[in-house]
Amino acid sequence: MDDDLPTDFQVIVVGTGMVESIVAAACSRIGKNVLHLDSSDHYGGLWASYNFDGLQKFIKEVNSDPKRQLQVYNLAEKWYIEKESAQDEKKEEGEEKPEEAKPEPGKKVWSQANFTAEYRKFNIDMTPKLLFSRGPLVELLISSNIARYAEFRCVTRVLTWLSDKLMPVPCSRADVFATEAVGIVEKRQLMKMLTSIVGYNEEEMNNEFKDWNDKTFKEYLAHKGLTPNLIHYVLYAIAGGTDTMPCLEGVKECKKFLMSLGRYGNTPFLWPMYGSGELPQCFCRLCAVFGGVYCLNRPIDKVQTLTVDEGKEVVTIESKSKTLKCDHLVIGINECPKDLISPEPAESSDISKAVFITNGSIMKSDKEPLTLLRFPPLNDGDHSVTVLEVGPATGSCPKGLFVVYFITNKVKDAESDLMGIAEKIFDMSGGDQTEETDKPKCLWSLFYNVKDTSAPVKSTTGAVHVCSGPDAGLDFDRAVEQAEQIFKKICPGEEFLPRAPDPEEIVFEDDVTHGPEFTRDQDDDDAPKE
Amino acid sequence: MILFIKVWRAMATNRSGAAQRPNGAPQTKVCQFKLVLLGESAVGKSSLVLRFVKGQFHEYQESTIGAAFLTQTVCLDDTTVKFEIWDTAGQERYHSLAPMYYRGAQAAIVVYDITNQDTFGRAKNWVKELQRQASPSIVIALAGNKSDLAAKRMVEFEEAQAYADENGLLFMETSAKTAMNVNDIFLAIANKLPKSEGTGAAAAGGARRLGDAEQARQGSCCK
User: Which of B208, B212, B214, B215 is the mutation pick for testing A, counting most A CBs within 10 A?
Assistant: First the structure.
């Protein structure tokens, strides 16, 4: 079918992960001739989102293919509900009600069969990530005009775990003053602290922090006289750190959080509609709009580099008995033949992840919440755990359900690393879904580990550029930064994703003579009728 | 094809909602809808849109570089319908259309070439794909394009009409070259789209586009 695929390109990109897709878009945007391939039948690689059916296929594929388990392993899926519902209610699938449907009387009893029937309403992310409202990805989406391909929702609240319960974290000035969790003196202290962190210029920063290079952020906060409560908020919830977080890193993270406040919502964060997996697709679309050629389901067999005249390198790729040629190959680390990588990437700690589907929010709220919870380490030496809870309004699941993601650095394995926290915020016992409980019932869970391939990797040749896999971080900043670096190597001196024109700006060459105006009465219709 | 850049003023993010008129005259409701084009390569998808949006036709239309996203407004009696028209940008060629293409689409035009039976078969597949991937309430129109080439016709009008009737699709034969039925098919779609408050691109209620202007909501009048 794809035998007419052209073979000569300036840039070939293999893999449709975030970094690869941004590079593809950037190259195509400035006029490079780009081919973008993926060995699988969907976009995103490890950055993809799946509907429920797609996710089941993914789990099956990984569990039956030892090669795939080099990237993703320890997959453990578990149901906490019956196969078939006793109620046997025959609800028509796809009966879309407008957003503010009336609250349903009584809780629905979900069965596995319901999940299967409504599989299309799920969009479950392998790499869920947030965007800082003033972070590099938001700025890039706006400046490049790729923002028009996507929609977002604001994260409505940031929670923390304090004194053995969930507590909202005051984010804005108004929040700080409205909260009952901190006293009036503490409020002043907190505001002063936060205001100064944002306000410092470089000189003041250097002055303030010159003696703090080798100390922790926690020590700094204590030195500033913050109460244990406030230290908790600032260190764990705002900076997303642990007790050992270096001072300067903590200050940087706080600043990033605070700078993104007040742009779009009450918190600094945005979540893409239908999940993080949409974002690589948006960049791919821009690439295609500017002439990039797309071909999924196209595995590559062999990569070779040849030096032609004057030291110029050409990369050849064997794929389905076709030889593709390019000046630059951009390739995802998981698709890249080992012999092209040099030196071997250092061993890094892997990532532990989990996805839960629940029948309610971890903390009740009037309107549907969209929540970031940064769970502080339960024991000394543990890592903190990032928890994201998304609901039906984000296009992630059917009404009545929530999808909750856990992400942390791996210590033992995903289940041991994360089960302790799951039990604190969910009811993991199964049982009657209609009973009123403090904690939402977990209906389904998936634990898994992902190899951390986020460290930058060098290739053996200047014509091959290797893109890192997803990191455990909250945002996409590292992916954006790496993509720009790769682009600058391929296209030195060129602008990185200049603004694409809006529809109103696109004027075709012979626009001078306008065609018939559109009117309702169709009097412009001088076409010959059959 | 050469692109010129003009200063851009209109907000691309007008959402469903009443436009304000200072004199208190009756308000015109503006509804914005995402419309996606589907169909095999070279059936005339881009040409249909160019004819509709710019009133132009190019005999040797190249694949549309940089212009796969156009807007056009249709005025009905009490409503202004603004179409945000998405072209496939060639991603359909090797069966690599991204799911994000269908997200939130309220209307689709599936195009085939009346002189090519294969493209009609593929159009049926696109309709199935839409029924599988897109919103269940999507309005689908089937366009048998290149009706100016009736002498070389391979797909009978009646056959396509019967298929459209069976599947609840709007159907017209069109010609981007002569403009026949081009405006009409968009108008028919505009008429069929639900235009109550809370429909249109804002149906996602609270989902937002990002923009230079932080306040991304603004009404707009019928031009």
Answer: B208
CATH no., domain A8-51+274-346+454-490: 3.50.50.60
CB count within 10 Å of CB A165 equals: 12
A3 touches chain B (CB under 8 A): no
Contact A43/B at CB under 8 A? yes
Q: How many residues does chain B have?
A: 223
Q: pLDDT class for B61, splitting at 50, 70, 90?
A: low
Residues spanned by CATH 3.50.50.60 within chain A? 8-51+274-346+454-490
CATH number of A65-121+349-451: 3.30.519.10
**pLDDT value, residue B23:** 53
Mutate to test the interface with B, among A294, A514, A519, A525 (most CBs of B within 10 A): A294
Contact A481, A270 (CB under 8 A): no
Query: Rounded to the nearest 10 degrees, how much is the dihedral formed by the CA atoms of A332, A338, A341, A343?
Result: 140
The DSSP letter of residue A498 is P
What stretch(es) of chain A map to CATH 1.10.405.10? Answer: 167-270
Closest residue in A to B94 (Cα) is: A295
- The DSSP code for A246 is B
Q: Do B203 and A98 touch (CB under 8 A)?
A: yes
Contacts of A291 in chain B (CB under 8 A): 63, 65, 90
CATH 3.10.20.30 for the A167-270 domain, yes or no: no
For residue A57, pLDDT over 50 is answered with yes
Sign, Cα dihedral of A25, A26, A32, A38? negative
Measured in degrees and rounded to the nearest 5, phi and psi for residue A444 equal -155, 145
Is the confidence metric ipTM above 0.95 for this complex?
Answer: no
Interface test with B, best of A505, A512, A514 (most B CBs within 10 A): A505
User: At A192, is the pLDDT very low, low, confident or very high (cuts 50, 70, 90)?
Assistant: confident
pTM confidence score: 0.89
Q: Do A138 and B210 touch (CB under 8 A)?
A: yes
